[in-house]
């Protein structure tokens, strides 16, 4: 997928009704992950999901966890400090958020949260 296709897919995802069970998988699909990859991550028997936080961890890629309002900072901290994040080399958590919402990496957590809150406010207005 090229950058335009990814932007379109992420925009569609942002406009769709939010379903916390579906969102992490839809997020990965928006970035071009194949259906077989998503199926393996969803599988109850032989899942490739290695999250230790009841989230979604795609090895060598990203560790995601849906959280409620007010838990964002704690959840980001838990993801960053998770032994599974380190063990399975999930490296794109901060970079992905920064590039999606700001076109670049955020300078710090405050800047990230301000941007996410601003986008949320616009989406729900």
Order of helices and strands: HHHEEHHHH
| Number of helices, where a helix is a run of at least 4 consecutive DSSP H or I residues | 7
The overall pLDDT average reads 80
Largest sheet, in brief, is:
2 strands, antiparallel
Spatial ordering of strands, largest sheet = 1-2
Distance between the termini: 31 Å
Helix content: 55-70%
Taken from the alpha-carbon principal axes, the silhouette is globular
Please provide the count of β strands: 2
Provide the domain count: 1
Question: What is the structure about, briefly put?
Answer:
The chain has 125 residues and is mainly alpha-helical. The chain is built from 7 helices and 2 strands.
Describe, in plain words, how this protein is organized in 3D.
The protein is mostly helical and 125 residues long. It has helices at 3-15, 23-30, 35-42, 72-81, 83-87, 93-102, 109-124; strands at 56-58, 62-64. Helix 1 runs antiparallel to helix 2 (23-30).
Notable characteristics:
2 strands; 56% helix; 125 residues; globular; mainly alpha; single chain
């Amino acid at each position: 997928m090229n950058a335009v296709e990814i932007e379109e897919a992420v925009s569609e995802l942002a406009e769709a009704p939010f379903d916390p069970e579906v969102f992490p998988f839809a997020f990965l699909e928006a970035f071009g992950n194949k259906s077989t990859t998503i199926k393996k991550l969803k599988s109850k028997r032989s899942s490739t999901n290695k999250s230790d936080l009841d989230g979604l961890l795609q090895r060598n890629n990203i560790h995601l966890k849906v959280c409620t309002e007010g838990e964002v900072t704690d959840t980001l901290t838990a993801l960053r400090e998770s032994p599974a994040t380190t063990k399975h080399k999930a490296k794109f958590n901060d970079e992905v958020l920064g590039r999606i919402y700001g076109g670049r990496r955020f300078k710090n957590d405050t800047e990230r949260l301000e941007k996410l809150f601003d986008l949320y406010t616009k989406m729900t207005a």
